[in-house]
């Protein structure tokens, strides 16, 4: 059974590229090809178009028109044509046009912050998937080693039983532990397959041989440094601040409805008869156009109150986000400290468990230890290896989680 499982693992590994892959390479591939990030990038590009649209109201407007027709009546047939050209330039809009430009700039800043947040979340997810594959590989290797050790232990117990040195209980204990180890190995293979699929979903291709990721660059020296950077760079906070600026500009847009619009206008019109060229007519005009909404049934007042309420909500959102960012950074900092300590402890645990296992095996051969002692120590060694795999994975994620909450994870990420 174990041999067939090993063959299946080897076959699944063959679908991965033959070359090794670093975490930076995986991140670059994900940033280039991930469809979710591409969709966010498209939304950012769409939002950028708000600025030229808002600026257009401040620029001259030019339009042309032309028509031709034929009229049949009791007096005969009349075929005529007309053409016109008109231009206008906004002179005063109560500040609404300028406020629309400010609002567009704020919306773009918010969209950039949202894109940065999506990019950093993708990088964090890729790091977690990368470390998850390595953890799954380590777990699979540890459980394979356990199956091998328990298989050897079962042979030893059977030989000792045949020699009359141990009882049937010792053999049964070894058989039970081996059966459980084989079951756990099958489950570990399923977990590895799931980790590979998560990696493919994010990066776009199966993992190659993954090297140990280096310590993340740019980690802060203290919690105070991390908080100071987060205030400036956290994309969630920047997005909330941009939303506040947009809401503030929206108030000015709504207030401008109480003022008149003044524009400079000019036009030129030509008309004539197709049959009688002497009947052509032309006119030119230049003037000032003023429009003012005197009564709107209360809609302008309502929109003004609405925009002010939304501005108040945006300000509260900024305050809430500031508190949330502080909590996230503090939690991430604490998590990193715990993850670093856990790796050190887990490595020491593996070293001592391996030493103890070798010692107990030697003592078993000299009759100083029973079969159950060896089985218990084998289980301790397995748990130590699994704990180390989990701790190393958690450290990779914790480093990048802290950088993500600070808002600088993408700064050191490779670009496609």
Descriptive key words:
Outer membrane efflux proteins (OEP); 416 residues; two-stranded parallel ribbon; disordered N terminus; elongated; alpha+beta; 4-stranded antiparallel β-sheet; 14% strand
What does this structure look like?
The protein has a single domain, classed as Outer membrane efflux proteins (OEP) (Up-down Bundle). 68% of the residues lie in helices and 14% in strands. The chain is built from ten helices and six strands. Strand 5 and strand 6 form a beta hairpin.
Number of helices: 10
Radius of gyration over all CA atoms, rounded: 37 Å
Output the structural class: alpha+beta
Question: So, the CATH homologous superfamily?
Answer: Outer membrane efflux proteins (OEP)
End-to-end distance:
44 Å
Mean pLDDT: 91
Please indicate the percent range of residues in DSSP E strands (runs of 2 or more). Answer: 5-15%
Biggest sheet statistics: 4 strands, antiparallel
DSSP helix fraction: 55-70%
Estimate nothing, just give the exact number of structural domains.
1
- Strand order in the sheet with the most strands: 2-3-5-6
Instruction: Count the beta strands.
Output: 6
| CATH-scheme architecture | Up-down Bundle
* CATH fold-level name: Outer membrane efflux proteins (OEP)
Q: What does the overall shape look like?
A: elongated
Order of helices and strands: HEHHHEEHHEHHEEHH
Describe how the helices and strands are arranged:
Blueprint: H1 2-13, E1 20-21, H2 23-33, H3 35-48, H4 50-56, E2 61-73, E3 76-92, H5 96-162, H6 168-203, E4 209-210, H7 223-233, H8 235-255, E5 261-273, E6 281-291, H9 299-365, H10 371-406
Parallel strand pairs: 1-4
Antiparallel strand pairs: 2-3, 3-5, 5-6
Helix pairs in contact: 1-6, 2-5, 3-5, 4-5, 5-6, 5-8, 5-10, 7-9, 7-10, 8-9, 9-10
């Amino acid at each position: 059974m174990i041999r067939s499982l090993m063959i299946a693992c080897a076959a699944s590994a063959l679908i991965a590229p033959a070359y090794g892959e670093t975490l930076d390479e995986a991140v670059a591939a994900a940033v280039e090809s991930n469809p979710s990030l591409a969709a966010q990038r498209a939304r950012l590009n769409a939002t950028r178009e708000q600025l030229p649209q808002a600026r257009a109201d401040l620029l001259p407007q030019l339009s042309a028109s032309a028509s031709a027709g034929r009229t049949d009546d009791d007096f005969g047939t009349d075929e005529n044509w007309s053409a016109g050209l008109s231009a206008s330039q906004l002179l005063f809009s109560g500040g609404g046009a300028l406020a629309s430009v400010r609002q567009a700039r704020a919306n773009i800043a918010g969209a950039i912050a949202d894109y940065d947040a999506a990019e950093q979340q993708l990088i964090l997810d890729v790091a977690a998937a990368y470390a998850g594959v390595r953890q799954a590989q380590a777990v699979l290797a540890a459980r394979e080693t356990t199956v091998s050790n328990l298989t050897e232990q079962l042979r030893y117990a059977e030989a000792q039983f045949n020699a009359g040195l141990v009882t049937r209980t010792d053999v049964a204990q070894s058989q039970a532990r081996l059966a459980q180890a084989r079951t756990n190995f099958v489950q570990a293979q399923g977990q590895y397959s799931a980790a590979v699929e998560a990696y493919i979903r994010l990066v776009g291709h199966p993992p190659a041989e993954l090297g140990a990721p280096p310590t993340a660059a740019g980690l802060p020296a203290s919690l105070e440094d991390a908080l100071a950077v987060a205030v400036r760079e956290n994309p969630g906070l920047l997005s909330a601040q941009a939303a506040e600026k947009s809401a503030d500009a929206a108030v000015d847009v709504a207030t401008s409805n109480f003022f008149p619009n003044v524009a400079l206008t000019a036009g030129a019109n030509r008309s004539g008869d197709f049959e009688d060229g002497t009947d052509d007519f032309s006119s030119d005009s230049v003037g000032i156009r003023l429009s003012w909404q005197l009564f709107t049934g209360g809609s302008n007042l309502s929109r003004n109150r609405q925009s002010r309420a939304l501005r108040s909500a945006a300000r509260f959102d900024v305050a809430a986000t500031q508190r949330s960012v502080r909590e996230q950074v503090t939690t991430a900092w604490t998590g990193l400290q715990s993850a670093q300590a856990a790796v050190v402890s887990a490595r020491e645990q593996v070293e001592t468990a391996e030493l103890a296992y070798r010692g107990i095996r030697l003592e078993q051969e000299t009759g100083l230890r029973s079969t159950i002692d060896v089985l218990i120590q084998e289980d301790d060694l397995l748990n130590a290896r699994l704990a180390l795999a989990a701790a190393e994975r958690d450290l990779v994620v914790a480093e990048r989680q802290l950088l993500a909450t600070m808002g600088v994870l993408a700064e050191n990420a490779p670009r496609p």
